[in-house]
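Honest question from a wet-lab person: if I give you the sequences of every part of a complex, can you actually get the arrangement of the whole thing, not just the pieces? Trying it with mine:
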Amino acid sequence: MAYNLSFARKVYKNAEMGHWIKMCMQCGVCSGSCPLGPLGAWEFGPREIFQRVRAGKEEEILGSGAMWMCTSCYNCIVRCPRGLPITHIVHGLARYAVETGKVKPTQPTARFATKVFWNNIVKTGRVGEAALSMHLYFIDGIGTGISNVLEMKDVALGMLKSKRLNPIPFRGKIKGYDGFKKMLDKAFELEKK
Amino acid sequence: MADKKIGCYICTGCGIGDALDIAALEVVAKKEQKIPVVKNHAMLCGAEGLALIQKDMTGEGVNALVIAACSPREQGEAFRFDTRIMDRVSLRELVVWVHEQADQKDADTFEEDRNMAAGDYLTMGCMRVKKMNAPEPFQDPGFSKDILVVGGGVSGLTAAREIAKAGYKAILVEKSDALGGHVAGMHQVSASKPPYRDPQPNPIGQLIAEVEGFKSIEVIRNGDIINTAGAPGLFDVTIKTPSGDENRRVGALVVATGFKPYDPAKLGHLGHGSSPDVITGLEFEAMAKAGKIVRKSDGQPAKRVAFALCAGQRDAAHLEYCSSACCIASMKQARYVQDAYADGSAYVIFQEIRTPGQMEDFYRGAQDAGTVFIKGDIQKVATGSGGLDLEVKDKLLRSTETLQVDLLVLATGMEPNLDTQDPNVPAPVKPGPETSHTTLNLQYRQGPSLPNLKYGFADSHFICFPYETRRTGIYVAGPARRPMGIAAAMTDASGAALKAIQAVESVARGAAVHPRAGDLSYPSFRVEACTQCKRCTEECPFGAINEDDKGNPLFNPTRCRRCGTCMGACPQKIISFANYSVDMIGSMVKEVTMPEEDDEKPRVLVFCCENDAYPALDMAARNRTPLSTYVRVIPLRCMGSMSLVWIADAMSSGWDGVLLMGCRHGDDYQCHNVRGSALAEIRLSKVSETLKTLQLESARVRMIEVNIMDANVVVDKINQFVEDLSELGPNPFKEF
Amino acid sequence: MTSGNAAHKTILVVGGGISGLTAALEAAEVGYEVILVEKNPYLGGRVAQHHKYFPKLCSPTCGLEINFQRIRNNPRVTFHTLTEVEKVEGSAGNYQVRLRRNPRYVNDKCTACGDCAKACEVEIANPFNFGLGKLKAIHNSHDMAFPNRFVMDAEFAKTDAAKKLVAVCPVGAIEPDMQPQMVDLTVGAVIWATGWQPYDAAKIRPYGFGSNANVTTNMRFERMSSAYGPTGGKIQRPSDGQAPASVAFIQCAGSRDHNYLPFCSRICCLASMKQATYVREQYPDAQVTLFYIDLRAMDRYEAFQKKIEADPKVEWVKSKPARIEENPANKNPIVIGEDTLTGVRYRREFDLVVLATGMEPNAALQPVPAANVPTDDYGFVVNDGGGIIAVGCAAGPLDVAGAVQSGTAAALKAIQALAQVKG
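Yes, you can. This is the full assembly:
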């Protein structure tokens, strides 16, 4: 692979907080702080994401699941010695991957966040937990959907019992939905610019 | 000076009076040593005690003092009298405190032994003062306070300017026809003031103008120093110029000859020589200064530039050390690329980023400007169709990557632009015109160059005394001394300028410079008795002694640092100070009465370095560590001044053993006179022959290394020696 | 007290550490009158607390002893311990300075015989050892203290026990009623050499200093390694006094970090390498691990790094650890982070962890009490060419040789400031 600054320049310019990536000194405190790290859940920790952005590894980074794993615990931001807003950079990169269409179609978090969750909330102005779960389970078709549901049923029952899951779908719209809709439209308009 | 009249004052405070038989001590001073005025006081360091002494000095004509109280390291300000003849006898530390409790001995014997120790120390103190004369400072009507600065780069210019600003005259000699050195060829410099983030305009032009504006700075361009003769205050320097030789008498020198960039031709592995687009940092500076950051191969804009740090540095095959300025310099140069081209790319390929102190912000500034930092090794440099193709083993990506650039800039290191010589191999040559050409062409018996410390740099070995110099009055500054950047060099040059000023002022007072700053004594040579053995001229750590054609010593008092190494080296006892001599210490050794063999009271003599071992003993005394009562300690200026005559004196007068306590020597030596303790050890290796002729065991003399923080072990080491000696039995010479 | 004749020819040096001592002595040895003030009861400052210097591994006391001899032999240097500067007014050549001389509660008659400490029954935490170990409430600050004179703890001085000690002193040196004194003087130049203090490691929350007993700091480790320190030189775990079999050093603990000290403290890499030798010398089987971002062994110190690298029992991990946990079973610190050269996240247990904390400028905590003295964002004093000259670590993080160079250069600047004044 060849080093190439063109990707980094695009990120610095277009991804939210992307310009901060320049300032990383590769100390590793972020990756060491990430609670997802010990689970082996990500391909790259934040440090490695930043190094790869600077090295020009566009496909590798934007196509990776690394920045979709962030749980926004903010440990990395708090500890980063260079003051990088790491959580925001990582989310910005994720969003940039969506915008550029580089995100893999199979990336589950991307699909959940940008499709299922989004559609659910936009429709009524409020999240309907049951419908959200169902949508997520059946995202890959009816077969996997059923097995997903069966797999999660105990969790669902537990959540129902402890009143963490409302089985009745939210009907109608939230109060002031019009205002909410206006906000969203404005945001879309701004983003298009 | 009028005749010497000695007063001996015994303090009875701090438990001295309780522990010791003061009346008996007064007898020692008065009857045995014939000291005319002997008094005691309960608190000699108090106002009343001091007044007592002062009264005798003004009223009784006492002009030499034996003060038997605490350690000479205590109450220095209190016992400051108008006399140069004084000895402090440490009754408190070396007698009372180390002999506080009876060990296994019965109390009576212990008390007797303790009083004997006190008596012996007082005896030695009286003898020392009897043998001491007031040193008269060395003076010469030809002393100059002008200072010669060698090298017209940023260090030399700074030194000259600082000297002039302090009111002294500087003579600046530059070998080329232009001032400014390497810095003159630079586009910008790094930041030394907040906010520390961005490169700053090059200050060299202003510095040159300032120097040229001083009436008190004489600038000699195209000057080549062909001869440096003389000594501090009296250096006679000959400078060859195109219009003839110039001679200047100066008091001191600042040597600021800077650095030579490491030869890039040796960096073939980084592509040097394979393409004109592989250049050095200084070449890149010139490009930026000319406003043309282009490929040398075809003149096209060089928008993609890689900087290879540690090029030929930190590498056993090239320069082993770090040149300390290259990280910052390369970051600065990366900024030139970004400044010149909005779409410019700069890559810094590094091992470790070294931006100490506030320079961390300069690193931040470089990152902010978009410089990419790659921790890795350049494995291959090839010329491709679109530029230079680098193959880089990226240590953080853990992969080998390629990088195409227009220019590869090698951060080559600094080598001292100054010849140095191994100080441990005394120059076999006599000074003279036949010696090969060097930077200073010093007319020193020990060679024409400055001593090397490491890697050819003329640095000081001392962490705490970076301007300690082994050639008095000659101070090296800037990267000739140690690799450093511009800001550090300017500070260093100011420091060296101060030391040069201090040297000329000290010389004018006839006083020594570091480490015996202010010492007015200096050795005199009874040359008529010299056997031309050349030991003094070879061993002087500071090159103070030249030789005439016959091998007689030619002493330069203002080069001298008063350590006494020459005195210790001389087998003929022809070298002595007014207040420190072979005869003085020898007389002290011989004056101590040896108990009869039947008394079973051995006597063990300890010679110790007054800078390290002696304070360690003081600290042991503070902690009341019990020392054998058979031991008598004599501090020396330096182990280098230790004369074998004293060992012979001790042995022939019945001492049972002699222990020498000197500083660590070798690579990490701690001897403030460079080689004093090492030389003492070499001398000692010859002692066994001497002892053999006296039919004595060589185990009776031992040398150990003692560090100033060895208080916890020093007493054990001495006591161990005393114990080991007891197995040899008494010195048979006691009977004579 | 007045500064005698030619006040404008006198230099005031504030701070008696290696930078201030050097500046004072170098100026005095040129021939100028110097007044040196130090807030501690002794001279020598931070270096006096060090066990050894890198790279020679020699004792700082050795060089200090030479400097103290230079003071003893030089009547041009006057020094005052326990003294602080309240304010400075005026300009180069003519500064009016107010000094505050805090009470020692022991007067100049003290001969350091030690009778008072023997009689004193109250002990305090030893400030020289950063509170580790105890010493008598009337004491000599440390074994090689200069001046060799006792000092009484200010809180203890208020007690009846202190008053009882008055009678113990054979020379009448103890004065528990001693009051602070203000002293005004005029000087021509001021050298500000107030140095640094170790960054407060407790502020670095993820590292658990203060809650995890076996996490210590580099300066405490210096004291622990000294034969005259709180453990008599034995390197041990604070929790149980056991010899550590594994010791980790964590670099940039607080330095190069925008949350704490954004600058690099320059000396900590080499200091930890030096401290690695303490461990390895004392425990030939012990393992040392050094966590770092960049190893900063400049110029010929590189050889020192190479020397430590040659030790197979010293391991280097390029990583800034994220946090330190404590193993409740054995109180071992567990260091957690990412090894940036392998990408592997580690969780490693050590017997002892030493935080290489950096230098916080004292001038940031106690600013120069004068108008128009510029500082940078970190509180280091910036030299702008005026008659108040910052030196050593008051101006930036330096090693000892650098501080001495800076002190020597500052002496020249002060002399120049005086030279400009006609008189």
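Two things worth pointing out. The first strand of chain B starts at residue 6 and ends at 11. Chain B touches chain A through 21 residues (CB under 8 Å).
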